[in-house]
Design brief:
By secondary structure, the protein is of the alpha/beta class. It is built from six helices and 16 strands.
């Protein structure tokens, strides 16, 4: 199966413009044979809103207009797409979210669990749904968003739920270069999954996003990567069976690795105990 990541610039608050550009790029990737195409975090809306009142008019429900439009194109091209947006719930709450859409429309969505003190995440609501794995054809896809990658528990949970691939739409700002360079490979290797992290480029309200999108295989090797400044499309061929075989025989009868079977969860109790450090106040 061929997958693609679309590293692109985004215009703050210009939903129709962003959506049309995404669909143009989706068509190009599909013509190259990609069946799963991943876009950046908040690709539909932009990210650097200065308060929740400014952001709310650009949020939409799921399913909604964007997932409907993507569903029509996915049906035409027989592809699947993951993209970032702001989700509006029935109580006017705003979540930083991703949606997985295929030929039959919306398949699943994810609300960002870990929120940094940056951009719209200073004002949006914390993700309130359990991590989940969804079927994109025969591929089992889990979703995280940007800062989530800094917390290994999210990716590990998705791996335990059976993910073959984790998609990470992201808006990495300056300072996140080491996350792009090292963390993505580590998350892929430690969970034995394919991992596709797709960042944006361009400048938005003073933040120059660092690009550096990449695709990693279940051994942590980089299959494809993008420059840190320019728009780009990256592609990789993935083998689903490779992600499902968690036991790696390095030398028959002498050396094998299984990072899921070899876990000792009874020793990890402190991981789930709340930490009492305070964080800066969140804006309104």
């Amino acid at each position: 199966m061929k997958i693609a990541g679309i590293q692109m610039d985004v215009t703050l608050g210009k939903v129709s413009l962003n959506l049309n550009r995404m669909i143009e790029k989706l068509r190009i990737a599909a013509a190259e044979g990609a069946r799963l195409i991943v876009f950046p975090e908040c690709a539909l809306t932009g990210y650097c809103f200065e308060n929740i009142a400014e952001a709310r008019p650009f949020a939409e429900s799921l399913p909604g207009p964007a997932t409907q439009r993507f569903g029509e194109v996915c049906r035409e091209l027989d592809v699947y797409v993951v993209f970032g947006l702001l989700e509006l719930d029935s109580h006017d709450g705003v979540f930083n979210a991703t949606a997985l859409v295929g030929p039959d429309g919306l398949i699943g969505a994810y609300r960002k669990v870990h929120l940094p003190y940056l951009g719209v995440d200073m004002y949006s609501s914390f993700g309130d749904r359990p991590f989940a794995v969804h079927d994109a054809g025969e591929l089992k896809v889990g979703m995280n968003i940007c800062y989530d990658a800094s917390f290994p528990e999210g990716a590990r949970t998705l791996a335990l739920l059976g993910a073959d691939l984790i998609a990470l739409p992201t808006n990495w700002p300056p300072g996140a270069e080491n996350t792009a360079a090292y963390t993505i490979n580590a998350r892929a290797q430690e969970n034995g999954v394919y991992y596709i992290a797709v960042n944006r480029v361009g400048v938005e309200r003073g933040f120059a996003f660092v690009g550096s999108s990449r695709i990693c295989d279940p051994f942590g090797s980089t299959l494809a990567s993008a420059d840190h400044r320019e728009e780009a499309m990256i592609y990789a061929e993935i083998d689903i069976a490779r992600a499902r075989n968690k036991r790696f025989e390095r030398e028959t009868g002498k050396h094998a690795i299984d990072r899921l079977a070899d876990r000792r969860p009874e020793m990890y109790r402190s991981v789930i105990e709340p930490h009492q450090l305070t964080r800066p106040g969140r804006g309104e």
